[in-house]
Design goal:
By secondary structure, this protein is an alpha+beta fold. The chain is built from eight helices and nine strands. It has one domain: Beta Polymerase, domain 2 (2-Layer Sandwich), CATH 3.30.460. Helix 5 packs antiparallel against helix 6, helix 5 (about 145-155) packs parallel to helix 7 and helix 6 (about 160-170) packs across helix 8. The relative contact order is 0.14.
Length: about 200
């Protein structure tokens, strides 16, 4: 385990960029070694950290398109500790597995919910259409755009996550149309959206 954890709260620790990139590079190299190339996206707080946002990260979320892609990851990671064997989770409509790679929890899953939206972080066309490529060692990793992540964190009302996202996006720029569509898709009120846009415009 890379010694780069920082405190998140009672009993928790936050991963740093070195942890996330090391785990992803190792996992993707394992896939390459077995000549596997599943379609995937990195989402969650890990995706935000990879894009330069300093916020609490507990694990790395890997979204895949099909259940067989979870099985492909599982086979490639078979030499690493399996914390949760690939299984169907009916409550969340996910086919899910968890492995520990270089001390980091990698969670690989489908999210099998129907939507016509392209503005959601984990379902529909959103994560597949709206992503950026980030270098992790010898790999180019597709990570979900920050606009979709911010909408998720605003919905969850997790200020320790959305405040760093807002600060970063205000400084680095963002797609205002995509963010507004994502906030609408998440059911945020017009007033909430106005406050967020004002915050970004005046930071």
């Amino acid at each position: 385990m890379i010694g780069t954890l920082i405190a998140m709260g009672v009993g928790e620790a936050s991963l740093r960029l070195e942890d996330v990139t090391s785990a992803l590079e190792t996992a993707l190299t394992a896939l390459t070694a077995v000549r596997a190339d599943p379609k995937y996206r990195v989402g969650g707080t890990g995706a935000a950290l990879l894009q330069g946002v300093h916020l609490p990260v507990g694990d790395v979320d890997i979204l895949v398109a099909q259940r067989r892609d979870v099985d492909t990851f599982a086979a490639a990671l078979s030499s690493f500790p399996c914390l949760y064997a690939a299984s169907w989770l009916p409550a969340s409509s996910q086919y899910f597995a968890r492995y520990e790679v270089n001390g980091v929890h990698l969670e690989i899953s489908t999210v099998e919910q129907e939507t016509d939206s392209d503005e959601m972080e984990c379902i529909g066309r959103g994560p597949w259409q709206h992503h950026v490529l980030i270098t992790c060692g010898s790999h180019r990793v597709p990570v979900v755009r920050l606009e979709l992540r911010l909408a998720t964190e605003l919905l969850r009302d997790r200020s320790d996550r959305y405040e760093p996202l807002l600060d970063h996006m205000a400084a680095q720029g963002f797609d205002a149309d995509l963010l507004n569509r994502a906030m609408t898709a998440r059911g945020l009120s017009v007033e909430q959206q106005r406050l967020i846009n004002n915050r970004l415009a005046h930071s």
